[in-house]
Amino acid sequence: MVISKKIRDELGVEPGSFAVQTVVEGHLEIHFFPPEHNRSLLGCLKEFIPPGAGEGMSWSEIKEKAWSEAVRERWLGSEQKVD
Fold first, then answer.
1. Cα dist from 19 to 4, 22, 28, 55, 73, whole Å
2. Both 4 and 30 in a single domain?
3. Secondary structure (3-state) at 5
4. pLDDT at 25
5. Is residue 41 assigned to a domain?
6. For residue 43, which phi and psi values (nearest 5 degrees)?
7. What gap in Å lies between CA 52 and CA 18, rounded to an integer?
8. Going by C-beta distance under 8 Å and a sequence separation of 6 or more, which residues neighbour residue 3?
9. Closest Cα to residue 65, out of 53, 79, 78?
10. Is residue 40 part of a domain?
């Protein structure tokens, strides 16, 4: 089966996209999911990080701090500190 370029472009289907086919009430539905990317995400969250956050810390320390804060906020409430 060939899907026209116009439809592929409209749906955002690109080489490597994953197609899931399902029969629904006697007709075929195809849902496309994008392929895994290999583009760098370096810096994509920079605008959300406060100035000076994590300064002088290793990646392991930054990750551990982020997990601790997430646990505190989600499970313990914002007033309690997680060691």
1. 15, 10, 12, 44, 38
2. yes
3. helix
4. 95
5. no
6. 85, 0
7. 41
8. 13
9. 53
10. no
**Residues 71 and 51 occupy one common structural domain:** yes
Answer yes or no: is 57 within a domain.
yes
Blockwise average pLDDT, block size 10, the chain, 83 residues:
92 91 94 85 76 81 83 71 51
Please report the sign of the dihedral spanned by the C-alpha atoms of residue 52, residue 57, residue 61, residue 62. Answer: positive
- Whether the Cβ atoms of residue 50 and residue 65 lie closer than 8 Å to each other: no
Backbone angles phi, psi at 66, to 5 degrees: -65, -45
Contact in structure between 32 and 12 (CB atoms under 8 Å) = yes
Q: How far apart are CA 1 and CA 54, in angstroms?
A: 52
